Amino acid sequence: MHLFFSLPLYLPLYQTFSVGTLDAMMCGDDAPHGAYKMLAEVARLMRPGGIYMLITYGAPKERLTLLNQVQCCWEVELYIMPATPEYQLKWSNGAAHAMMEKVALTVDRQLPPDYVLKNPESHFIYVCYKSDIVTEDNSMVAGQDDAMTSF
């Protein structure tokens, strides 16, 4: 028996765990349109307070543009974790910890104009919090109930 089939997946039945879907959509002939449709469907299916997490090698310039095109009330957070071993760990109190950088996005949810990517061989982690509650300044209030993940 394969080890893969003997490991339980600890996700409640109403949550979705998607692996590689968006990156696969970005490889097709109609990549931007197909990826947009997929993200619009993800946004439609998520309930308020839901989370869509995208972990990819896709650079922020392209992925943020795509995530911001979707007509969805979600707030996007970007984290960058270097993929090369010499950058992956930092030592604290004698123990190794994964090194992840949170990138502060602009008001229009883009990279700051002066941002310089330190290591292009990185994992980019986009966390999208869905909410349909909009404040008077058009910012979104997000909850953290459900999670949909795409690697």
UniProtKB/TrEMBL annotation:
Q: Does the keyword Signal apply?
A: yes
InterPro entries referenced in this protein's UniProt entry, alphabetically: SAM-dependent_MTases_sf
Does this entry carry the keyword Signal?
yes
Q: Domain of life, per the record?
A: Eukaryota
Sorted UniProt keywords: Signal
Question: Which positions carry the signal peptide feature in this UniProt record?
Answer: 1-16
Q: What is this protein called?
A: Methyltransferase type 11 domain-containing protein
Organism encoding this protein: Aegilops tauschii subsp. strangulata
Q: What is the lineage of its organism?
A: Eukaryota, Viridiplantae, Streptophyta, Embryophyta, Tracheophyta
